[in-house]
Write a structure and sequence with these properties.
The protein is of the alpha/beta class. The chain contains eight helices and six strands. It has a six-stranded parallel β-sheet, sandwiched between helices. α2 links the parallel β2 and β3. Bound molecules: adenosine-5'-triphosphate and magnesium ion (MG).
């Protein structure tokens, strides 16, 4: 079985926190490849002005250029309507029966995923890799892990990670305020954002 990491996110825009998390997860779980999956219209972010899926996908593609173990999937951005992680994982399982999927997420998502649609189907189709970012203690994460396992079964691996206080929100806000985001995103992503004049106003 090939081991494939799946990293979903809005990626508006993708940044070094996302890339480092994917890289650390790949190393910790011995993944053969990691697939970055920008969300389509996420019902959780409905209301905010999110860049079109194809643009967020384009930035993700620029970010992983040159890394043959990372690639980006358009499964969610090309789907109509709201997209849900459980659907993507079900679809991937059917399309790639020779792969074991590892769903990579920040620990913040471990706390919110019970409010996602059909969390049990996520556990049925993937092993969860949850990164502890230092903002939540390992002890609390272990408790949360036990609670989720009792409720849904499946497998959750905790991944020690750095507290890296970077987010797409901070990046958008800095751009809006005329501040530099160089080194917060890969150079190619920065050039693309500047060329397209993204995030100057929201
Ligand atoms: P926003 O600020 O718009 O919410 P974000 O930076 O949190 O954006 P998302 O696209 O919402 O990025 O997150 C995608 C995934 O990346 C989630 O699993 C989230 O936990 C994780 N993630 C985001 N930022 C970091 C970071 N600095 N360190 C580790 N994981 C992160
Ligand atoms: Mg977020």
């Amino acid at each position: 079985m090939r081991k494939i990491g799946i990293m979903g996110g809005t990626f508006d825009p993708i940044h070094i926190g996302h890339l480092m998390l994917a890289e650390w997860a790949a190393g910790a779980a011995g993944l053969d490849e990691t697939w970055i999956v920008p969300t389509g219209i996420s019902y959780q972010k409905a209301g905010r002005n999110v860049l079109p899926g194809q643009e967020r996908l384009r930035m993700a593609e620029l970010a992983v250029e040159g890394n043959e173990k990372f690639r980006c999937l358009d499964v969610e951005v090309s789907r109509e309507g709201y997209t849900y992680s459980y659907e993507t994982l079900e679809q991937l399982r059917l399309s790639f029966p020779d792969c074991t999927f590892y769903f990579i997420m920040g620990a913040d998502c471990l706390y919110s995923m019970e409010r996602w649609k059909y969390p049990e189907k996520i556990f049925q189709n993937a092993i969860l890799l949850a990164a502890a970012r230092g903002d939540v203690s390992m002890d609390r994460l272990r408790d949360k892990r036990q609670e989720l396992l009792q409720r849904y079964g499946g497998e959750i691996q905790l991944l020690p990670f750095l507290p890296l206080p970077i987010s797409s929100s901070i990046i958008r806000e800095r751009i809006q305020n005329g501040l530099s985001v160089r080194y917060m995103v890969p150079d190619k992503v920065l050039s693309y954002i500047e060329e397209k004049r993204w995030y100057l106003d929201t």
